[in-house]
Amino acid sequence: MQLFALFRTSTLLLLSILRLTLALPTDRGVSLQNINSRQATTGASTANLPVGVIYEFPKDTWVENLAVRPSGEVLVTLLTSPDVYQVDPAGASAAIQVYRFPGHLGCLGIVEGAPDVFYVIAGNYSTQTFQSTPGSYDVFQIQMINFSATQKPVVNHIASFGNSQFFNGITLLDSSNLLIADSQAGAVWKLSISSGAKQIVIQDPTMAPNSAVAPIGINGLRVFNGNLYFTNSNQAIFVRIPLKADGTAAGPAVTLATSVPGDDFTSDPFGSFYVAQQNNKLVTLRSPTPGSAQVLAGDGSSTSDLLGPTSAQFGRRQSDQQSLYVTSTGGIEAYITRNFTQGGRVSRVNLSASYAS
Question: For residues 224 and 328, what is the distance between their CA atoms, to the nearest angstrom?
Fold first, then answer.
């Protein structure tokens, strides 16, 4: 009973923090490189792109992250169970379970390291208490090359992290090494794919959490043009750090945008970033010029088409290369109140629709 009372107090505090975080301005903006020149002359424009639901999981299913296979199917990780599923955007009548990682509560970041070879974080983070179990995180390799509904993938264990606090996002440093965000430690780990050697390569104040209830600092991270870009959920900032070849910092951190309570994100070849925000919005940020996030989809309300977006990736088929696939939780507040109106989803946002008229 004492634990339950403590949890009720913590959840009320967390809900207050979330509501303060979510009470942000609703900027509207444009999305694609092919309208960047128009944006420069006309200023911010309303996008409010339509959101199409590809697949909805049962309520109380937190869809945490995604990667798109070369063949176009979407792999998603679940935080509420230790599963990776596949969803086909061409017509997802059902989601196919790819693999379950026993001994873990859920899965987090996923990244493609080679064609149809993916790396996944599995660990113990509770979506009921919003607390991580330190030392519970592992990285696995999933080889999808011969995967089918009747043939499971080849799965290899790469490394365990006894000193981890809360592993979250994952990305490639190069073809041989991964970078992993430790959201609670405010640090980035480097992991050798071949040897399993691991070490912290960056720990910076811009990566640190600032909440004792749900300490989530650095979250999503990507390497682009020799720089590390990342979100910090608690601090609501989007940051760039120049990198050396070994993954250590080559210079100081630069905050590119504030009031961005981001989760994971992706980028296009032109240097624009597409960030899943925890306040029910999908936004874009242009680099290298610091500035405000511009909303592409989701209105920030509790009835938004995007409730708790967690990550975004571009499609890889000819028909969907200007579409973003977005994963979502069904709304972070629902995990506190236990009043679910929507399951976790895989949705599609068609960026070319922004100036179709």
Answer: 24
